[in-house]
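User: quick one, fold this
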Amino acid sequence: MSIRRTATTLGALSLGLVVLTACDKPTAMATVTVGGKTVQAEAADKCYDGGKKLEQNVFLACLQVTPKHHITVPVGDKVRIGVDPSIAKKGWLIASGTTLVTPEPLKDKTYWSVDSEQLFNQQDPTSGGTSTAKQVTLNIVESADTSGEDSYRVIQINLIRGQ
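Assistant:
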């Protein structure tokens, strides 16, 4: 009986190791917290290429992707954004839609917070007037510069303005 148990245990361990080696390494994620609610997201398939720089046309298309995840942001709340250390190492930017919120890449920082008004207030480029959006796409871009030419990943979360 003990030989069968040993054989069964060894078989289970071997199968477990095979399953573990077949797993993909998880991709780096971003976390957005508002009040007591949190949402995590990773880059869409085409918006991350295993650490290779995204082509400019792919990067621009990624800024337009509809986010899979969302969070409601009450008026006046802070939006807290955290990224994996591997993203922080290269640098990252925060954009509300395509408007940069951070003037330069956040390098070696895994956390940043933004007032919600800064994300939802949008300026009309033709009239110069400001309006408040009901929802915006928060783009978290792994990038070493603000031009978008040195971008490696785009993570998106839809922010919905609450009361």
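User: anything notable?
Assistant: The helical segments are 2-22, 56-62, 85-90, 116-120.
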